[in-house]
Amino acid sequence: MIRVNNLVKKFHTEHERVEAVRGVSFEVVEGAFYTLLGPSGCGKTTILRCIAGLEHPDAGEIWLGDTIVLSSDKHITVPPERRGIGMVFQSYAIWPHMNVFDNVAFPLQEGPKRLSHAEIRERVMKALEMVQLERLERRDATQLSGGQQQRLALARALVGEPKVLLLDEPLSNLDAKLRGEMRLELRELQRRIRITTLYVTHDQIEALSMSSKIAIMREGSIVQVGSPREVYLRPYNSFVASFMGSTNLIPGRLSVDHNLTFVETEIGTFRCIKTTDLHSGDQVLLAIQPVNVIVHEQLKQNSNVVKGTVELAVFSGDYLECEFKVGPYAISARQHSSLDLRRGQEVYVELPTEHCIAVAMDF
Ligand SMILES: Nc1ncnc2c1ncn2[C@@H]1O[C@H](COP(=O)(O)OP(=O)(O)O)[C@@H](O)[C@H]1O
Ligand SMILES: [Mg+2]
């Protein structure tokens, strides 16, 4: 278990003060795969480094299991090597002049515990087996492929039998295909050994496909926490909605009538779903993903349907990528490629209620 309470970290450089982490709290339950997701510079690495003990926070409390490893109030700071953490960084920093076995053995030889040769051998081989590198123990680290180097870095993080694993964008140096494979492999490994994992990435797909829970960050704060489905399908605000994928955002005003939620926009009033605490009269955005927009070629008189014209219809094999002009807005839609639309054609654009989310303005 990892628990972080009101963590604050500021950096002072010659020219500026950066509040990298602004009072962040979250909890990673035992065995979970928890992801901090957010754009570059939002404070993800700094949080990981604070948990590892590599950075000294200005305020806050950090618990690992039932041990408090940092408390600014109680003046507690447990040194990094006593925190029981395994960590893999973006540049996984394997040692090129050592072979596979020695790379993994290194933390044990340097670590606080004195282990016999036999014990070291046993632990290293166990870690190598976990990542399926046991047959390459004598190979030079430089002769490994990108994916194998990645697995080596993991074995090295696991060899000390840590209680928690911290992973900082560990897949970002791999090519796209390998990254996809490693996503699944990493998640499988984590499930198998059931180690509590805190993962950091700026890549939505990685976060969605691997995590049991995602915390979305912006400028040093967490803006929403939920399962991959929750954050993707039920964003609280426009930042989350647009960060999670290309989303149509139409400005409007919220109105609530007998428990039904509507957004009144320049192109009509749409019945929507509310995901967070919003009130009648609030300025909001109607968010809907392109895959959820339905287009009708024949006249359709229905609620949540507006008339528009085809501005763009690009056939791309699996899909037809469309853009419809509705009033002053361009609404993106991804349709089945069997649909054949002409530019300038009149259509009826349906924004189904179950996919229309009223989100708070946040830009
Ligand atoms: N050692 C440092 N000195 C000064 N500023 C830093 C330092 N480390 C990080 N920062 C700043 O803190 C903010 C958060 O950085 P970081 O945690 O690395 O973000 P992320 O990992 O989400 O990309 C950034 O504005 C970054 O420039
Ligand atoms: Mg980072």
What does this structure look like?
The protein is of the alpha+beta class and 363 residues long. It folds into two domains: 2-233, Rossmann fold, CATH 3.40.50.300; 245-360, Nucleic acid-binding proteins (OB fold (Dihydrolipoamide Acetyltransferase, E2P)), CATH 2.40.50. Helices cover 23% and strands 37% of the residues. The protein contains eight helices and 21 strands. The protein has helices at 44-52, 100-110, 117-130, 146-158, 176-193, 204-210, 228-233, 238-243; strands at residues 2-12, 17-28, 33-37, 59-64, 67-71, 76-77, 85-88, 164-168, 196-201, 213-218, 221-226, 248-257, 260-265, 268-274, 283-288, 294-296, 305-315, 319-326, 329-336, 346-350, 357-360. The strands form four sheets. The chain has a six-stranded mixed β-sheet, with helices on both faces. Strand 4 (59-64) and strand 5 (67-71) form a beta hairpin. Helix 2 (100-110) packs across helix 3, helix 2 packs parallel to helix 4 and helix 3 packs across helix 4. The mean pLDDT is 93.
